[in-house]
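ok so dumb question maybe but i'm new to this and my supervisor (M.) told me to 'just get the structure for Protein kinase domain-containing protein' and walked off. so i did the thing. is this what she meant?? sequence i used:
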Amino acid sequence: MKDYGGRGPESHVRKYTQMLLKGLSCIYYNGHVHCDLKLANILVFPCRDHGVKGHHLKIADFGLAREPGEDDSDKLLHMYQYRGTPCYMSPESVQFVEITSALDIWSLGCIAVEMIKGRIAWVTLDSKELFNKLVRGNESPMIPENMPEKGKDFLRGCFERDHCERWSADSLLTHSFILDELLPPVETKTGELSSSHIDGVVLSVVNFVLCSN
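this is what came out, is it supposed to look like this??
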């Protein structure tokens, strides 16, 4: 992104977003929710694809990760006040409801906006103001006007305020905003993941599971 002044070309944003969605799908398959997805927790590695230089993303830092359905609101109130980084948090994250994979999808939307705009999705970094916008103001990050309609629709799926209605990682992988990039398809069978689906995050997931036991 530094090569483009902090703002990535749409084709790059699509490609990187697809990588992150594959990673999130793998994380959920392994029974976890990241709970703190943000650019600072994404590692970038150089790679070559058919001789062409590129980059490969890996999701890192599972220190706040939890299992879906876990509710640790009492512990949070006494220890951290909230789980995650404010400018990437979803409305339900602030309200301490049951942990679901949907909160990571909201964070993914914030990351996509940040890659497109070259700055955070919100206009403020003040935690109290952000929480008021999320809970009392019923607000969502502003979707960039210069995005194509399919991109805006993709982000609307990420920023659905009702977490039960928010798109899942697997559903977003089939969205036209992602598929139009014409990247190699992810072939999966019921109950199992292909190696391409796991590639990029499984090592981080395994490390987290091993360190947690």
